[in-house]
Amino acid sequence: MGFMEMETYYKLIEELKDFKGLEKISFWGIGEPLFHPEIAEMIELASELGVKTQMITNGLLLDQNKAEALLEAGLDSLVVSVDGTSPETMADIR
Fold it and tell me: Does residue 46 belong to any structural domain of this protein?
């Protein structure tokens, strides 16, 4: 699985500048957003649009340096997804 190239993201941000009524950009979905090497820059660019930014993560890749970078980039909300306390519980939920 890959991730969005920054050139594509820059184009998307340019198009969103004219999208009135945009309130929030969420970083989550298929895959873990913290795998993206430029996630802090992506959040910063979204924040510059004047919208709220949110990330949903499993938290496994989150350390102090990444947390500080996300805060400095303007992340407004971080949701850590916990699907269970054991592999069996997680399998039942998913």
Answer: yes
